[in-house]
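Weekly modeling sync, notes
Attendees: S.R. (lead), two postdocs, one rotation student

Agenda item 3: backlog of single-chain predictions. S.R. asked that every request posted to the team notebook include the full sequence so nobody has to chase files. The rotation student volunteered to paste the first one in as an example of the format we agreed on. Action items at the bottom.

Example entry:
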Amino acid sequence: EALWVLENQLKQSVGMQTLSDVPLGAFLSGGVDSSAIVALMQSQSSRPVKTFTIGFDEGGYDESSYARAVANHLGTEHHELRISPQMSFDVISTLPSMYDEPFADSSQIPTNLVCKAASQHVTVALSGDAGDELFGGYNRYVWGPSIWRKIKWMPFSMRQNLFSTLRKLPLGEWTRLSSLTRISRLGEKVQKLADKVESARDLDDLYWSLVSEWKHPNDLIVASQSSKNIDARSITLSGIVLPDHLRFEEKMMLLD
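Predicted structure, as returned to the notebook:
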């Protein structure tokens, strides 16, 4: 019954968003979030939904085949844009004019490119943004608490040494393991995780490390250089009250 209620609410929400006087489409990555949105759109449309995705020339980063499979299954009018390294590079110099503040997310580049591609066909496009935060879709919600339970008994210095060693292992050493585990880009993911966990003294540290692209966020705040009372965390958490009964992963989702 709960699943039926959830599906019904999502269907109503998507239906409300598709009431438009202008051409409408959707971004489709092939992941659960955007695929669910497009499926709910298509179920309420008498015509094929226009869907848009991008593919990368580098095989290790290209996931366009998943979007193509979903589009074929749902019968959408699918558009795929192939991205070269030069196309991505050309976007970088235009980023400051798009955002009002530093935005440390590499997805801003492909998002800009897929928006440009979609604008040739539609005026409005739905996406699966916020699905991960609402339904626990990010790896950190699973791996963060799981890893912490396994290492919290270690003294901080021991944890530092362990993850420093993992971080320094050559990517080539992980390639063979990657084929065994079927985890794409295993080496990159392990090194990134090791870098995040290495400096965490407690669960709060772990959360901030997992969500930060910058190891020392206070360095980005000019005022913090002259005042010990200004802290990036306190600025970010201003006005946010977290209920005590929430589990760690639930607190991460709520903060996100």
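Discussion: group reviewed the output briefly. The radius of gyration is 21 Å.
Action items: rotation student to repeat for the remaining queue; S.R. to check formatting next week.
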